[in-house]
Amino acid sequence: MPPPAANSKRQRIAVIGLGSIGGVVAGMLGAAGRHDIVACVRRPIARMTVECAGGTIESPLPALTDPHEAQPQDWVLLCTKVQDTAASAPWLQRLCGPATRVAALQNGIGHAENLAPFTGRATVIPTIVYYNSERLAPDRVRYRRGSEYDFAVADDTDGQAFAALFDGTMLRTLLSGDFKTLAWRKLLVNAVANPVSALTLQRNAVFRREDVAALCLALLEEAVTVGRADGARLATDEAAQTMARLTAIPPDAGSSMYFDRLAGRPLEIDALTGAVVELAERHRVPTPLLKMLLTLARAASDGPALPRH
User: Fold this and answer.
1) What pLDDT score does 216 carry?
2) Is the C-alpha dihedral spanning 124, 269, 199, 290 positive or negative?
3) Which terminus of the chain faces fewer neighbouring Cβ atoms within 10 Å, N or C?
4) Has 291 been annotated as catalytic?
5) How far is CA 268 from the centre of its chain?
């Protein structure tokens, strides 16, 4: 972790996107009181409540609803879905200056390249988000720790500065010397488990079915082959390890894509399974099962909204 001196300066932090991921970071950073937090939202809220195992964390949350009111910040935490990045461009253009750091708290890979057209000379920091969260209301989210760490970043100056932001909160950051492999390990889960849960309309309990587990293992074997071709240092039994991590998640937890399907929102399928299939074609790796999963999830994303019960 960075030395205490790196943690002493008060930072100005803007959070774009108050869904399940953004609600957790905004609420916990606001409650810690070490930095000046502002939320960039369509409709203002007075405060954010985070439900967690030890109780609830509540924090007032200043908000902006018009990008023209925004000024450059020390940090921008981009917490939207990948497909909503372009819609965040007016915010990014106003919030980013040459000294701004933009942390991409998004699924998928290639964040620096994807955000470059919108962030000017700001520094983009890819992150991996591990915690499981659920948006319960516009001003309320549920947080569950998914592993020993809540985030992972590269072990460099920018990554150390990101980790220092969360001093005084319960959110923990892993500093990694092999960020690419960690990013692929997270992508393996998201590219397979998220669309399967969305298509079956079931939470994580579905992966404890023998037939679903067998299908997911085959999908993961394809994805692992692509990851190795892309330079990730994945284990020989990586697919089996991934399934073990997946089935260890509480059965009542749900993926973000599952919640998006229930709410009738577009699915983040192209940034996840689509990214793996695109890289497979680039590296000439056959992925028939992943292509089928991608096709079905795209059709579900484009289909009519589900009836509300």
Assistant:
1) 98
2) negative
3) C
4) no
5) 11
Residue 307 belongs to some domain of the structure = no
Between CA 309 and CA 300 the distance in angstroms is 19
The letter for the amino acid at 90 is P
Same domain, 68 and 216: no
Among the listed residues 9, 81, 180, 186, the single catalytic one is 186
Choose the final residue of a domain: 129, 157, 177.
177
**Counted domains in the chain:** 2
Q: Using an 8 Å Cβ cutoff, are 150 and 171 in contact?
A: yes
DSSP 197-217: HHHHT--GGGGGSHHHHHHHH
pLDDT along the chain (309 residues), means of 10: 53 95 96 96 92 93 95 97 92 97 94 92 96 92 91 97 96 97 96 97 95 98 98 97 92 91 92 97 98 97 76
**34 closest CA partner among 79, 78, 74, 93:** 74
Task: Tell me which residue range forms the domain holding 253.
Answer: 180-302
How do residues 40-72 score in pLDDT, each as one tens digit?
Answer: 999 889 999 999 988 999 999 999 999 999 999
Residue with tokens 């749900």: 254
